[in-house]
Design a protein that fits this description.
Blueprint lengths: L17 H8 L17 H11 L11 H44 L1 H9 L4 H42 L8 H18 L1 H9 L2 H6 L2
Helix pairs in contact: 3-5, 3-6, 3-7, 5-6, 5-7
Length: about 210
């Protein structure tokens, strides 16, 4: 009998019948025993029953799928913490870049800002324009970065799923939208100093500058 399985209760890649194993490799004692708890029995209760049954055999090691799942979850959580730290550093670098870009833009467009002020644009409107520009820059960057991140994350998730189990990648749409909103708000905050500088510049002095 031959079959393909999506998941297996053992770490091996191939499962064969015990009689076939004995024919191929000779008679040998089992090196592991799989125990399935009865329906509705909590994991703690079944684990305690198995521990009591093998208490007289100190060489035996008892492990469960719940422990394996918890260990795998802990490993993934540590990796997520590392990725979160890298994400935080990326956000700081991005905000610094937005602030520097807007500061240079304000310096290079001094006469343009003064001309807009002379044509009737108020200080509040000029400040809002510069802040909106920063938010648009951040939104475009967040959209492109999120798209690339989703593609690379889905590829990594497929690799992990093929190695450790079954399922399909899940895209955390809510978290991604929250991060994009936070990045946009942070860009608005980073744009405040350059916008304040632009609004405080004298219109006549800026118009007269070369």
């Amino acid at each position: 009998m031959v079959a393909l399985y999506d998941d297996a209760p053992t770490a091996g890649e191939v499962l064969i019948d015990w009689s076939d194993y004995a024919t191929a490799f000779g008679a040998a004692g089992p090196d592991s025993v799989l125990v399935k708890a009865a329906e509705g029995v909590p994991a703690e209760t079944s684990r305690a029953a198995v521990d009591d049954a093998v208490r007289q055999e100190p060489r035996l090691q008892v492990a469960s799928q719940a422990e394996w799942r918890a260990k795998l979850t802990e490993t993934l959580d540590r990796q997520l913490l590392v990725f979160s730290a890298l994400l935080g550093m990326s956000i700081v670098i991005a905000l610094t870049g937005i602030a520097n870009t807007l500061a240079l833009s304000v310096l290079e467009r001094t006469r343009e800002s003064a001309l807009l002020r002379a044509l009737g644009l108020s200080r509040a409107q000029l400040r809002a324009t510069l802040i909106l520009e920063a938010m648009l820059m951040s939104a475009v960057g967040a959209t492109i970065g999120t798209a690339l991140g989703v593609l690379s994350g889905a590829a990594a998730a497929v690799g992990l799923i093929r190695q450790y189990g079954h399922g399909h990648p899940v895209v955390p749409v809510g978290q991604l939208a929250l991060y994009a909103a936070l990045a946009t708000c942070a860009a608005a905050l980073a744009a405040l100093p350059p916008a304040r500088r632009a609004t405080r510049t004298s219109v006549s002095a800026a118009m007269a500058a070369d």
